[in-house]
Design brief:
The protein contains five helices and seven strands; from the N terminus they run ββαααββαβαββ. The protein has a three-stranded parallel sheet with strand order 6-5-7. It has a two-stranded antiparallel ribbon with strand order 1-2. A two-stranded antiparallel sheet has the order 3-4. Helix 2 packs across helix 4.
C-alpha cells in the first residue's frame, strides 16, 4: 500500500514530502530515479516487440490478397488493423526496454498491461514481477526495495 505521505529524493539532491499525487508525480518525473523513453528509443523498442510477438501465420495472411488465406478446409481472415493498441504496444515495449536497460535489477509492474497470457508469460520469463494486492485489494508497494525498478503504465 502507498503510504499517505510519500518522500522522494529529487534530482537536485533534496528531499520532498507531499500528500498531493500531482506534486509527487511531477517531483518523481524530475528525479534521477525516473526514466522515460524518448523518441529515439521507441523505434528499437517496437522492433524488439515485433521480434518477440510476430507470427509466421499472421505474416502469411498479411501477404495474401484481402488478408485472407485458405489452407485445406480452413480459411483465415485477418483485419487490416490488428495487433496491440498504441498504449499497450508502448507499455509492453517499455517493459522489455526496462529489462534491457536494467539487466540486474528487480523490475516490478503495477499491473498487467494486456489480457494476453503469452505476453504476460514472456514478461514473467524476463523476471518482471507484478506489484501484489493486499487483503483490502490495494497495491502493496512495500515489496519494491531501494534500487528496484517500477514500471508505471499509463492505465
Amino acid at each position: 500500500m502507498i503510504p499517505e505521505v510519500s518522500t522522494i529524493t529529487l534530482a537536485r539532491g533534496s528531499s520532498s514530502t507531499s500528500t498531493d499525487p500531482w506534486v509527487f508525480r511531477k517531483q518523481l518525473q524530475r528525479s534521477d530515479n525516473y526514466y522515460r523513453p524518448d523518441a529515439t528509443s521507441l523505434p528499437s523498442m517496437r522492433q524488439r516487440l515485433r521480434e518477440v510477438h510476430n507470427s509466421s501465420l499472421v505474416e502469411e495472411i498479411q501477404s495474401s490478397p484481402g488478408y485472407t488465406l485458405t489452407v485445406g478446409n480452413i480459411t483465415f481472415k485477418l483485419a487490416e488493423a490488428h495487433g496491440f493498441c498504441w498504449g499497450v504496444e508502448r507499455a509492453v515495449a517499455i517493459a522489455y526496454e526496462s529489462r534491457r536497460r536494467y539487466p540486474d535489477k528487480t523490475i516490478w509492474m503495477t499491473n498487467e498491461v494486456i489480457h494476453n497470457p503469452t505476453v504476460n508469460r514472456n514478461l514473467e520469463k524476463l523476471g518482471i514481477r507484478y506489484i501484489p494486492r493486499d487483503a483490502a485489494n490495494q497495491k502493496d508497494f512495500s515489496v519494491a526495495e531501494a534500487g528496484d525498478v517500477v514500471v508505471l503504465p499509463a492505465f
